Amino acid sequence: MPRSVNSVASRKRRKRMLKHAKGYWGRRKNVWTVSKNAIEKAWQYAYRDRKTKKRNFRALWIQRINAGSRQYGISYSKFIGLLNAKNIELNRKVLADLAMNHPKTFEAVVKKVNK
Fold this sequence. Notes:
Blueprint: H1 7-20, H2 32-70, H3 76-85, H4 92-101, H5 103-114
Helix pairs in contact: 1-2, 2-4, 4-5
C-alpha cells in the first residue's frame, strides 16, 4: 500500500511559518529550511531580549536617578537608602521620570529625604 502523506496540513503548517518570515532578506523569506531556522532563531532572540529589556531599563533609571540626585549632593545608594528609611514608596521608573522631566518635583523629594 502506498504511503499516505497529508500534504494539505504540511502546506498549511509551512505557510503559517513562512508568514513569520515576511520582511526577511534573500532565501530566508521563501526557502523552507532556511526560513524555519531563521524564524526559530528570531524567536529565541525575542524571548531572551524580553528579559534583557527589563534589565536595561532598570539600569537606565538608576543612571538617571543617580545623575539627578548628585546635583543635590547625594549619591544614588544613599538616596535610595534614605527613601526606604523614610518609607517613601516611589519606584525607580517614577523617580527617573521626575529627575528627567520634573526637576522641581525631584528636588522636593530629595529635600524631604534629606531632612
